[in-house]
Amino acid sequence: MSVSDWQAFISQTDARMGELRGGIPGVAKGFHEVARAAIKAGALDSKTKELMALAIGIAARCDGCLAYHSKAAAKYGATREEVMETIGVAVYMGGGPSMIYGAEALAAFDAFFEG
Fold first, then answer.
1. Domain named Carboxymuconolactone decarboxylase-like: which ranges (predicted)?
2. Which residues contact 73 (CB under 8 A, 6 or more apart)?
3. HSE-CB for 32 with a 13 A CA cutoff
């Protein structure tokens, strides 16, 4: 899938996820806690962790992952150059499909980056 409007994609996905969370509140709460704990700054800062999540999202070919982790990487101060290097690692690990999703990830980051 190719997303042309990442802002609208997140809005649509947020609405769908809200409905899902309402149907499985315990699972949703548990997932939220895992996500919060995983991204919390520790030995690695939150920006680095979001870039890692973005690379995994590229390799896993997950549009939602590209949207949310691009937005979060921008929020934590990632630069376009850092995202480019992140995409490079994802391509190394995921081959040709990661190259395609890397281009999508860059488009998603550009939609949220204010630099």
1. 25-107
2. 47, 50, 51, 54, 82, 83, 86, 109
3. 10
Task: State yes or no: pLDDT of 79 exceeds 90.
Answer: yes
pLDDT at 1: 60
pLDDT tens per residue across span 15-74: 999 999 999 999 999 999 999 999 999 999 999 999 999 999 999 999 999 999 999 999
Q: Does 1 fall in a domain?
A: no
Flag whether 104 is in a domain: yes
Q: Are residues 34 and 50 located together in one domain of the fold?
A: no
What pLDDT does 32 receive? 96
Count the domains in the chain.
2
CB within 8 Å of 97: residues ≥ 6 apart? 61
Task: Give burial (CB, 10 Å; 0-12/13-18/19+) of 45.
Answer: middle
Q: Could you give phi then psi for residue 45, rounded to 5 degrees?
A: -80, 165
CB contact at 8 A, 50 and 73: yes
Q: Are residues 28 and 50 in the same domain?
A: no
